[in-house]
Structure formats: structure tokens, C-alpha cells
Design goal:
about 5% strand; three-stranded mixed sheet; 3 strands; Zincin-like; mainly alpha
Length: about 200
Amino acid sequence: MNLEAYKHARQIGMGYESARQYAAYVEKKKEQTKTGRSAKKDSTKTKVYEAEYDYEVKCSADIGDYLTKEQAVKYVKRITKSQLWAELTGGKPITVSFFKGLANPSTAGLAFGRSIKLAPSCITKHVILHELTHCAGHMHHDVEFRKCLVRMVSRFIGRRPSNVLKNNFKNIGLKMSKKKTILSPEAWLASKEKMKRLREMKAGV
């Protein structure tokens, strides 16, 4: 609970429980801004995969054929030497390795912060970009991951594919931005009361 927010809420006459809830709201908003995540659990992963699959079908000509191990290593080097990668990570070096076999055949790649591991039978440019986006500081599939991935796709595959991917995310119900503004106690309370009235109207109370 954010103690400063709690004190502020109490000073304007907010009751104990409402002040506590407001303080929890402020703490949550600050944590979201700090981490770039809207939830602790990676709850959007399945939807992200669904949006990516449809995009890969629609943009198969742009993404191109499967890559060999040698082509994959070269592609990673091209990306990690780019201005965009320097902007995103400060030029973090990335090592590449390959699975000899997978217990889960649906796993095309894994990211470990400073390295990625790829399945030789299904290496594509997009798989590499997906894993490198994790390495760029987004070890999840939340809003900041999606925003970064769209930028990576735009730079290294093309603008049209990036627009398709972005629209797929939106169409499946995944946000591409989040409000960073923290409501004042008065505005938060007004919003809470408005939502309560809407729920009551919907329930026919």
C-alpha cells in the first residue's frame, strides 16, 4: 500500500476502506509503469501467440522461408548491431544456440536475457524477433512486449507486416498502450462511484 497516497486520501475526508483501496490503486499503477506490465501473471501469452500465427500466415511472403543455423546467426548479428537495438538495450550482445531435440515440439525458441535458443526445424525471422524482444527487457507478453515487437517487425521485416501484427493484437483484444496517469483521490472516487452505478443499472437494481 502506498502510504503517501493513503494519507492524501484521508486528508480529503475519504473513509478508511476507500483510502486503503486508493493507496493500493496508486501502488499498482506505479508498479505497472516501472515494469511495463499490467499484471504479474503472463496472462496474455496465448492471445499473443494466436495473433502472431494469423500474422505469420498473412505475411508469409514478407517473413520469408525458414532460416538455416548460419542464416539465423547472421540475422541476429544484423539486429544486435542496429541503431534500434542500441536504443532498446544499449547494444546488449546476444549469443545463439540451437536445440538438439525438444520435449515440446511446439516450442520454436526460448529467451534467457542475453541468449536465445532456437529449434533448427522452424527458425524464421519472426521467431528470432520474438525471442530478441524478450531479451530487450520484456520477459513477458504484456503491452510493452507487444509495442517493442511491433517496432522490431517494422524495422527488420517491414512496415506492412508490423501494421498487420499490430491490428491483430488489437482485434483479439490486446491493448497496445496503457494509461500512465494516476488519478487524484477525488477523480478515483468519482470513477469508482460511476462504475458502481453502471453495474447497478445493468443488474436492474
